[in-house]
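tokens incoming
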């Protein structure tokens, strides 16, 4: 198995794509650290599904938008499993608002989770790797909107565009430390957050017409690519974004 003896921390893995990532790593033999805001039924179900693969899993509740929390997350993961090898920055939020109606609070919520949280958790992980004199891998679950405009979601796009440039910079800066970093950019994925969209054919049809494969992706489609990038099969891959969007980014017109 690809990750036997290794430990992975996955932020925002209580459900959706994050859960699929956690289960995939469990299937490949990793010790899995599940993270989300609350220790609720969603988090318990992710842990249950990971353990059903035969892997070990723990849950660490934490708000990654609070910088004071991130070092403790790394320390708790290491305490549980002895080491931490892989970080998956998956947690993210989006808020729909026309540009002239965006409030400071909305801006801060999106940027603090999507960009600041990713930045400082990654920093804490890299500090740990340096102290332990270990290689490591970071994969960010970004979005097609790190490149693709998305009217009424300008703050979200700014956060993902920032994630892209952080990734590119760190690929150069961390390469000599044998630490790799890449982004995965999902398009339209069938997750609970899209439940309202999925129930409205008048919205689904034009969306599917914007996707070259004419269907939404599944969380497992994203998880498979993230697992590849985190594995030794991708040991010469760093500084890149991998699109998992069915061709959306190159077949998109705003409706």
């Amino acid at each position: 198995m690809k990750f036997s003896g290794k430990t992975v921390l996955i932020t925002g893995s209580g459900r959706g794509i994050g859960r699929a990532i956690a289960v995939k790593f469990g299937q490949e033999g990793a010790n899995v650290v599940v993270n989300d805001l609350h220790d609720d039924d969603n988090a318990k179900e992710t842990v249950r599904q990971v353990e059903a693969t035969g892997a070990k899993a723990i849950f660490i509740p934490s708000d990654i938008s609070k910088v004071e929390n991130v070092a403790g997350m790394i320390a708790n993961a290491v305490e549980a499993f002895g080491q931490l090898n892989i970080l998956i920055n998956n947690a993210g939020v989006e808020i729909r608002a026309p540009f002239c109606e965006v409030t400071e609070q909305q801006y801060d919520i999106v940027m603090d989770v999507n960009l600041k949280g990713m930045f400082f958790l990654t920093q804490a992980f890299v500090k740990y790797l340096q102290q332990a004199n270990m290689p490591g891998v970071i994969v960010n679950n970004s979005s097609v909107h790190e490149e693709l405009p998305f009217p009424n979601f300008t703050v979200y796009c700014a956060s993902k565009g920032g994630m892209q440039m952080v990734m590119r910079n760190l690929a150069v800066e961390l390469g000599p430390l044998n630490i790799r970093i890449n982004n995965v950019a999902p398009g339209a994925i069938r997750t609970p957050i899209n439940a309202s969209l999925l129930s409205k054919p008048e919205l689904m049809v034009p969306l599917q017409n914007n996707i070259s494969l004419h269907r939404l992706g599944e969380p497992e489609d994203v998880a498979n690519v993230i697992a590849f990038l985190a594995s030794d099969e991708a040991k010469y891959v760093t500084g890149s974004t991998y699109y998992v969007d069915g061709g959306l980014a190159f077949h998109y017109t705003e409706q």
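note: The domain at 7-250 is CATH 3.40.50.720 (Rossmann fold).
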